[in-house]
Amino acid sequence: TNRRPLFTHLAVRIRGRYVVAGTSSISPSTTYPSLLEDSRVGYRVALTEDRLPLLEEIHIWGPSQDDVEIQVYRRYGEEYGDLARPDITFTYFQPKRPQAWAWAAMRGSCSVSCGAGLRWVTYGCLDQARNEWAE
């Protein structure tokens, strides 16, 4: 998220090619490659009543198999003060991986073939990656 897009703007390159903005100017809102793709880049720019950029947002749905580069461009240097300084925030999410091992119930056979009976349940260590019981 860019909270100061009047004097700065964001760009996105995938595999070395700009898909949002670039070096010269801010982009209109877009989605690359399309809304129908599972792995896509969504770019949105909100405008003021005077049609000046107010906020830029980039959302990348993944996982992405490509090299993705987010760039920040500023139009003016430090001598122009806080208004020209980028105000960029980001959040990164990584999927939770299941633990390799877990305690799991091992159900034994029932004590009777018909009617009420007993079933022994013991717990063992399960290798979830291989779906095998550990010794």
TrEMBL record:
Residues 1-95 form the ADAMTS/ADAMTS-like Spacer domain. It holds the Pfam family ADAMTS_spacer1. Keywords: Secreted. One of its GO terms (cellular component) is extracellular region. Its main location: secreted. It comes from the Eukaryota. Transmembrane segments: none annotated. It is found in: Secreted. This is ADAM metallopeptidase with thrombospondin type 1 motif, 13.
